[in-house]
Each structure stands twice: as structure tokens, then as C-alpha cells.
Specification:
Length: about 120
């Protein structure tokens, strides 16, 4: 059986637990966290054109887009209506068009999406 000391300790712990529960119930609900910040580009370029040349100064590829939105912290740019042309020395150039695109890895990679032709 329990000694009077153990009974008193059990009663005190039960009272403390009840008091803690009661205090938690009385607290007003915490404020909702602020909504996440809207994602916005660092800068926007309308009528974007970029041309890369080879060692001899001849164009090796050209990227044109109606609009480019640059996100510096993400190291990417979103493109609207991009057109990519890859020039070859002994053959006609390759051309790809789409509705949307991404420019990744500091401009080393272009991904075209949505109605790619």
C-alpha cells in the first residue's frame, strides 16, 4: 500500500497536471503564421535575345523569348514563348519553339515545355 508521503506526492502531481491542462485550455489560440512571401522575379526582360558565339565569332546558338523572368536565388529564368536556334557549320540550323521554357545552371541548360515544336 502507499505511504502518506507517496499519496501526497501523487496528489500534488495530479494537481499540477490538472493546473497545466487548465492553463493550456485558457490560452487564446496562437496567431496563424504569416502567409508565405509571394515568389517574385529579381528582374524581367521583355524582348529577350541572347546569342552565343564560337571561337571565330560565328553564332553557335541563339535564344529568343517574348519575356524572361530571372530568379537569382534559384539560379533559373522562366521564359515565355522561347525559340532556340542551334547553328551548325556544315548543315542548316536546328530550331525549337515552345510556349514556355526554363533557363538553368547559369544559362548552360535550356528546357522547353508546353507545345514544343
Amino acid at each position: 500500500m502507499w505511504s502518506s508521503r507517496q499519496s501526497a506526492l501523487a496528489l500534488i502531481l495530479a494537481l499540477l497536471g490538472g493546473l497545466a491542462w487548465w492553463l493550456l485550455q485558457r490560452q487564446s489560440p496562437t496567431e496563424a503564421p504569416p502567409p508565405p512571401r509571394a515568389r517574385s522575379p529579381d528582374y524581367v526582360v521583355s524582348g529577350f535575345t541572347a546569342i552565343e558565339t564560337d571561337e571565330a565569332g560565328r553564332p553557335s546558338r541563339q535564344l529568343v523569348a517574348e519575356q524572361m523572368r530571372q530568379f537569382v536565388s534559384e539560379d533559373l529564368a522562366e521564359l515565355d514563348l522561347p525559340s532556340l536556334t542551334l547553328y551548325q557549320s556544315e548543315a542548316p540550323p536546328w530550331r525549337a519553339d515552345s510556349r514556355q521554357g526554363l533557363l538553368l545552371a547559369g544559362g548552360d541548360e535550356v528546357r522547353l515545355s508546353n507545345a514544343v515544336r
